[in-house]
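Quiz preparation item.
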């Protein structure tokens, strides 16, 4: 697999401009660009500046993160989604990067929605988003999140939705930590059912050994430092034919206290062990 970096990892102690330099220096192949960090970058730069960087360096853009809360949005929410999707698509036409991560809605009422409601809404909204991004050659990676606050929590459910959507440009984002939050990966064999070509991105991260309900995104640790069976997870995806980006994605406030270069250097070493 290819070594990737999701900008959430250093979102509070770096910038897009700094990430580019440090990722190149430490041998990363891909960056997943955060749209808020791209917007900040564009206050003092242009998309052509970014294109020049990628044209002259090994590091390449893989795609953009993330479009969140895509379910059950009213007209105002939908307009905001479309604006953000359009921003990502327009950036991709200049710099490249053809994978847009889309995330189910989170909130205190999501647990009250029925499986059928969530299924129907997800299929509907993903088809509409698929149509929006298709002219740009963009792919949508739908990312289940195991915590009960999110409305699509498992790979099985997300795969059923993606298969019903039935569009070539709609697939899955597999995030080790997000799967672990559902049942500590007791359901890891569900990955055996996922067609490799429907995995559009792999987010790699480990977890502190905490009980479900306590475990939260702040407990994401470097790969190999926690209790997620990452080697087994990566092996299963490879067996299904997935051989693309393996992208380090941490949301750990402790790491935001460190120098970004330390996080990026250690992250590269730790992630390479699983490629
Ligand atoms: Zn993720």
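Solution:
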């Amino acid at each position: 697999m290819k070594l990737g970096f999701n900008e959430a990892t250093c979102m509070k102690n770096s910038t897009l401009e700094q990430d580019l330099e440090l990722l190149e220096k430490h041998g990363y192949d891909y960056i997943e660009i955060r749209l808020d960090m791209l917007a900040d970058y564009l206050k003092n730069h242009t998309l052509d500046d970014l294109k020049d960087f990628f044209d002259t360096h090994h590091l390449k853009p893989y795609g953009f993160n993330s479009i969140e809360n895509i379910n059950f949005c009213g007209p105002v929410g939908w307009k905001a989604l479309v604006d953000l999707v359009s921003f990502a698509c327009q950036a991709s036409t200049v710099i490249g990067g053809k994978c847009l991560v889309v995330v189910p809605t989170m909130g205190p009422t999501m647990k009250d929605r029925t499986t059928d409601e969530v299924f129907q809404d997800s299929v509907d909204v993903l088809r509409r988003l698929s149509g929006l991004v298709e002219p740009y050659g963009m792919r949508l990676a739908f990312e289940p999140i195991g915590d009960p606050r999110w409305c699509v929590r498992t790979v099985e459910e997300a795969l059923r939705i993606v298969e019903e959507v039935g569009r070539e440009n709609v697939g899955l984002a597999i995030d080790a930590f997000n799967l672990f939050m559902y049942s500590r990966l007791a359901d890891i064999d569900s990955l055996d059912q996922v067609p490799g070509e429907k995995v559009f991105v792999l987010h790699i991260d480990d977890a502190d050994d905490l009980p479900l309900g306590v475990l939260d995104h702040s407990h994401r640790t470097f790969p190999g430092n926690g209790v997620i069976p990452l080697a087994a997870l990566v092996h299963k995806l490879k067996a299904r034919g997935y051989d693309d980006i393996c992208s380090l994605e941490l949301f750990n406030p402790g790491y935001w206290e460190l120098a970004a270069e330390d996080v990026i250097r250690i992250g590269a070493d730790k992630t390479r062990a699983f490629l």
